[in-house]
Design brief:
This protein has 109 residues and is mostly helical. It has four helices and four strands, in the order E-E-E-E-H-H-H-H. The chain has one domain. It is 59% helix and 11% strand.
Length: 109
């Protein structure tokens, strides 16, 4: 593409402020990468979230202030399909269920 005396090369996508923008309106790869990053941070704080010394409210704050922002960074630019919305919902439910679901002893006993 040329404008005035400058020419620009067409690209399939580029990274801007940590978000990969593509020439097509598909964010599947970006969402998958965000979910992977969220899982990395979840595994980083997993011991703290598993501690019986922390109150439930504090665990929710840790989740909301550390894990969730990593996953949702740049989400205001996403146009989600129903499948992508489901991925995000399932991922969040999985984390919350691991932390606040029934204890194994309660289920078996």
């Amino acid at each position: 593409m040329k404008t005035d005396n400058s020419s620009f090369q067409r690209t399939q996508g580029f990274k801007y402020l940590g978000t990969t923008l593509k020439d097509q309106n598909s964010f599947q790869e970006e969402i998958k990468n965000r979910l992977k990053s969220g899982n990395v941070w979840y595994n980083t704080v997993q011991n703290r979230l598993s501690s019986s010394l922390l109150y439930k409210n504090l665990k929710i704050k840790i989740y909301g202030n550390i894990i969730l922002p990593v996953v949702l960074f740049g989400c205001e630019t996403w146009s989600l399909t129903l499948t992508e919305e489901r991925w995000l919902r399932v991922s969040e439910n999985r984390v919350l269920k691991r932390k606040f679901g029934p204890k194994r002893d309660e289920v078996t006993g």
